[in-house]
Write a structure and sequence with these properties.
six-stranded parallel β-sheet; six-stranded mixed β-sheet; alpha/beta; DNA-binding; 434 Repressor (Amino-terminal Domain); 12 helices; Rossmann fold
Length: 337
């Protein structure tokens, strides 16, 4: 059986150092951490999680609470969190919050009962205080991801306002002055910020904000499908539509298909959130792509730092997304990139 001393010998460090790296009980350099984990891989060492928990009071479990089953954005995010956590010897406990704060509070309590070492939470909309108070009062290290909500915790998300304004500006460049917007679930910080970005883009273009051009898609497929029908049924329907997340993009495409509208010939379409297959669609989708791998890695590293005992000021990270110009907005083949 491979022992910790074997890992230490392979890495050229002491057994104490190996223990600190594996248990995240002392800050070490990234180079040293990588060296130890490479030795773990080379030797095939498997830590005894029960013994480790008894020795360190850590369970090596991270609780993940988000709508990863109902929202297609979160599945790849969970995958990137898992990759980073597993390299440090942690296992994820996953639970779906259904964007419901009552369910979310219950699930967080279950995580705490399981004695997870930390929690990564994408808060549900509305009435965030109860669940965030539970986490704050428990003292369990917590990172909020995707949605900003409380400066008591580290937060990792993406810039929303300027990128959404950029989508508006791009559609205006194509001659559109009636641009519809399908917004997300009421109460989410991402919904508020992307709507703010839409209004900013409209204002910068010298256009008048028309409330009739904004419909809620509830961050879900079917409500967005209905929102498209409502937008195109107005007396002065939009010639372009922006959707505020990828689930609603699916709904919008279905709604346009229901009405026999072609993209971009009849209605141009641009979306916040990218898909792995967005460039394979016909026409390929113009999107704002969030840096999902970076978000997952950073949120996990922030959490592990807190688990390791870091007590500094909380940090808020809003990462820059990437604008993918494709064909659904009306770009020519040569301009799309």
């Amino acid at each position: 059986m491979v022992k910790m001393t074997d890992v230490a010998a392979a890495a050229g460090v002491s057994s104490t150092t190996v223990s600190h790296v594996l248990n995240a009980t002392r800050p070490v350099s990234e180079a040293l951490r990588a060296k130890v984990f490479q030795a773990v891989a080379d030797t095939g060492y498997t830590p005894n999680s029960v013994a480790r928990a008894l020795a360190t009071q850590n369970t090596m479990l991270i609780g993940i609470v988000m709508s990863f089953l109902s929202n297609p954005f979160f599945a790849p995010l969970v995958s990137d969190i898992d990759k980073t956590a597993r390299r440090r010897g942690y296992t994820l406990l996953l639970t779906e919050n259904h964007e419901n704060t009552v369910d979310e509070s219950k699930q967080v309590k279950v995580m705490l009962d399981r004695r997870v070492d930390g929690v990564i939470l994408a808060p549900a909309a509305r009435d965030l205080e109860p669940v965030l108070d539970i986490l704050a009062n428990s003292g369990t290290p917590t990172v909020l991801i995707d949605r900003f909500g409380d400066r008591r915790f580290d937060e990792v998300g993406v810039e929303n306002i300027e990128p959404t304004a950029q989508l508006v500006a791009h559609l205006v460049e194509h001659g559109h002055d009636r641009i519809g917007f399908i917004s997300g679930h009421t109460g989410l910080s991402t919904t508020v910020e992307r709507l703010e970005g839409y209004r900013l883009g409209i204002e910068r273009a010298g256009l008048s904000f028309d409330r009739k051009l904004v419909r809620s898609g509830g961050s879900q497929i079917d409500p967005a499908r209905r929102a498209v029908s409502a937008l195109l049924a107005t007396s002065r329907p939009p010639t372009a539509i922006i959707t505020a997340n990828n689930a609603m993009t699916i709904g919008a495409l279905r709604g346009l298909r229901d009405l026999g509208r072609r993209v971009p010939d009849d209605v141009a379409l641009a979306a916040f959130d990218d898909f792995e297959w967005a460039d394979l669609m016909s026409p390929a989708l113009t999107t704002i792509a969030q840096p999902i791998p970076e978000m997952g890695r950073l949120a996990t590293k922030q959490l592990l730092r807190r688990i390791g005992g870091y007590t500094g000021e909380t940090e808020r990270h809003a990462l820059p997304p990437t604008f993918h110009r494709r064909r659904s907005c009306g770009c020519s083949e040569t301009r799309a990139q």
